[in-house]
């Protein structure tokens, strides 16, 4: 059994995330809930780390890290979706550590098997939640919310299954 800290990005009073053809917050909530339920069904422990309220983005992010660290989660997974003026598409997963990058690669490969373009595993050393969590940590940018190609491929159930299989692969 593994303890997963699942970070549903944004969704904290003032912070609703990006808006493209789809809204980041809706995608995160739907895919994230499915990921959580699937992990629980497999017998893993899940800690949801998104705070209810925050005074600032930094406070929002710090609370997520504090919760994951306090519960000594084994793995931290932050779920986001991307936006770039309709000029980009595909999936990218950020990590810092060697273990994080290995896990990111598994999740990325699985998501891209659904047809999303692989933008690669990227260095997440600028990302607050990756820098300030004590465990293996990845941040998934599922796809581009403003890409018609990506939105056509979007299927929450398939995405969640791909993520969970990537996370739990031996
Ligand atoms: Zn985001």
UniProtKB/TrEMBL annotation:
For this protein, the record's InterPro entries field holds: MurNAc-LAA_cat, N-acetylmuramoyl_amidase_3
* Keywords, ordered alphabetically: Hydrolase
Q: Which Gene3D superfamilies does the UniProt record give?
A: Zn-dependent exopeptidases (3.40.630.40)
Which BP terms does GO give this entry? Answer: peptidoglycan catabolic process
GO CC field = outer membrane-bounded periplasmic space
Which stretches make up the MurNAc-LAA domain? 65-168
**What CDD domains does its record include?**
MurNAc-LAA (cd02696)
The answer to keyword Nucleotidyltransferase applying to this record is: no
Going by the entry's taxonomy, the superkingdom of the source organism is recorded as: Bacteria
According to the UniProt entry, its GO molecular function terms are: N-acetylmuramoyl-L-alanine amidase activity
Can you say what this protein is called?
MurNAc-LAA domain-containing protein
Q: Which organism is the protein's source?
A: Dulcicalothrix desertica PCC 7102
């Amino acid at each position: 059994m593994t303890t997963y800290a699942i970070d549903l990005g944004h969704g904290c009073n003032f912070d609703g995330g990006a808006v493209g053809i789809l809204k980041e917050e809706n995608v995160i909530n739907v895919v994230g809930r499915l990921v959580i339920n699937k992990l629980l069904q497999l017998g893993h422990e899940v800690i949801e780390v998104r705070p209810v309220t925050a005074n600032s983005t930094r406070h929002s992010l710090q609370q997520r890290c504090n919760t994951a660290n306090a519960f000594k989660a084994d793995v931290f997974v932050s779920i986001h979706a991307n936006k770039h003026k309709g000029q980009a598409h595909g999936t990218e997963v950020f990590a810092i550590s060697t273990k994080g990058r290995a896990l990111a690669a598994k999740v990325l490969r699985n998501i891209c098997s659904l047809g999303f373009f692989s933008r690669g595993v990227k260095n997440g050393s600028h990302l607050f939640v990756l820098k300030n969590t004590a465990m293996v940590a990845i941040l998934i940018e599922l796809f581009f919310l403003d890409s018609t190609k990506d939105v056509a491929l979007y299927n929450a159930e398939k995405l969640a299954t791909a993520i969970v299989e990537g996370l739990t692969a031996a």
